[in-house]
């Protein structure tokens, strides 16, 4: 059975159905207080590197290459530890990955959620076509 993982914007009001709320961004969201975010965990280590995030810029034409590069980053030891932590949280119940990104379809949290569901990034990124 796949873990129950969903993705949402951190600016959206928390819902009781969110389960464990995890911010998966490297940078704290602008204008948001810790109280309003209602986070359980801030997992910066699971976010894309600053270099990759800047290169990507949420450009739709770079999405597939971004996903490939991000999966490669997720296979790095520090990031794998973060993934293991998130997988453990997901085993305990619903996990909601949060991001400040405006367009969830272009956000890294979809790639992260897929890696957590699939048990992916075991060292070799999956190809995306």
From TrEMBL:
Q: Where is the composition biased (Basic and acidic residues)?
A: 1-12
InterPro entries named in the record: YeaO-like
Q: Where is this region: Disordered?
A: 1-21
What Pfam family is a match for this entry?
A: DUF488-N3i
Return the protein name: DUF488 family protein
Q: Lineage from the top down? A: Bacteria, Bacillati, Actinomycetota, Actinomycetes, Kitasatosporales
């Amino acid at each position: 059975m796949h873990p129950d993982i969903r993705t949402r914007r951190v600016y959206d009001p928390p819902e009781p159905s969110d389960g464990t709320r995890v911010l998966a961004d490297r940078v704290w969201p602008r204008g948001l207080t810790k109280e309003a975010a209602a986070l359980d965990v801030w997992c910066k280590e699971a976010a894309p590197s600053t270099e990759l995030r800047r290169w990507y810029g949420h450009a739709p034409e770079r999405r597939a290459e971004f996903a490939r590069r991000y999966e490669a980053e997720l296979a790095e030891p520090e990031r794998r530890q973060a993934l293991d932590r998130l997988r453990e949280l997901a085993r305990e119940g619903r996990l909601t990955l949060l991001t400040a990104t405006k367009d969830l379809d272009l956000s890294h949290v979809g790639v992260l959620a897929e890696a957590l569901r699939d048990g992916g990034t075991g060292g070799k990124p999956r190809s995306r076509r």
